[in-house]
Amino acid sequence: MAVIKANQEEVKMMARLMRAEAEGDGEMGMLTSGNVMVNRVRADCLDFENIKTVPQMVYQEPGGFEATLFGYFYQRAREKDIRLARKVIRGNRYAPADFSLWFFRPDGPCPEQWFGQWNTGRYKSHCFFSPTQSDCPSVYSTF
What we know:
By secondary structure, the protein is α+β, with helices and mostly antiparallel strands. It contains six helices and four strands. A four-stranded antiparallel β-sheet has the order 1-4-3-2. β2 and β3 form a beta hairpin. The chain is globular.
């Protein structure tokens, strides 16, 4: 059962974004970035109060994804990418991005906080940041 609504084209859109943002970090890197994407659709808080669909999440401005701005996003979704997108859409969570709403690739070590949100860990090149449960309970809710 899906934790967010996504038709086949939206699954492919999310798969393309996962690939564009984190292909260099392998399948787990794509899954952790996918967790952030699903969490942004589920969240009804902070910068994501008006994000209710995959396309809104993908093209959010400001605060969206660099891949949509710099062209990496426009590669086609491969079957492998689609399979990974379906995993996170079904609600599979992967540490350190389980409840994260943000990630980025720093030049050095992960900062303790990023825009007031706490670092929850790093997976290869990306650092992940999660809101507190009191700031964003919808991210922490069960499916």
